[in-house]
# Entry
Amino acid sequence: MNFEDLINNAISIIEKYDGVVLSYIAHFCFAILIFILGRAIARFVARQLRKILTNRNVDPTVVKFVSSLSYYAIIVMTLVAVLGQLGVQTASIVAIIGAAGLAVGLALQGSLSNFAAGVILIIFRPFKVGETVIINNQKGVIDSIQIFSTSIVTPTNELVVIPNSQVVGANIINYTRLPERRLDLVVNVGYDSDIRKVYEVLKQAVDKTSNILTNKEPTIRLDQLDASSMNFNVLVWTTNANYGPVKAELLENIKNGLTENGINIPYPTMDVNLNTQS
# Structure
């Protein structure tokens, strides 16, 4: 075989596989383009999520975790698309990824539910650090809101840690979110008391108490005729910061006023009869 025959054979081989080579090169270029585009989208989505969560004052740990999770999720989908463009059968790969995700999800079911609940709490903010709340019949001040749990400091200085999934599913009473709060007192007096005099004494006690809001009229009313007492409601408004001091001062003024005016405050009694007959 001479040199001319070698050249002709080479040309025939190139012509035979020219379409295949060009097709492979085109698929390879598209695969690179898909990867570059997918990575750019992943970075953009992660950056936007980080910005949105940061603007909502979400915990930095949650911000980093959510943004990283979105980034790698998009990268995985991009790699599957790249492999498909290169001719790799991706059905089995997707099935494996789905099965692995299901297994991890089942294994971490409790932790994932706590994490999801923590994200909900941080985004919607039913309470903040430093606010006084009741959660699951547990009253205290919010100490921290973590990814998986919420910590409360009780009035006796005990630290209570509640899983976030239980927090989301519970009734939450937030005492300090609103700036003003109503103080409700029940005052029991004896049936021999003059009702008009009781009203007068209670009104004077309210007027003597400091830090009661004047833009909302106090309410004093006879609410119930109990078995051994007449029950009066005293309803006044104050700020959250002054709630405790106002309650203590008002109770003291009411007690002093009732005592000074000879108004009886009934208390439980028991009559004991002794049978001395043998």
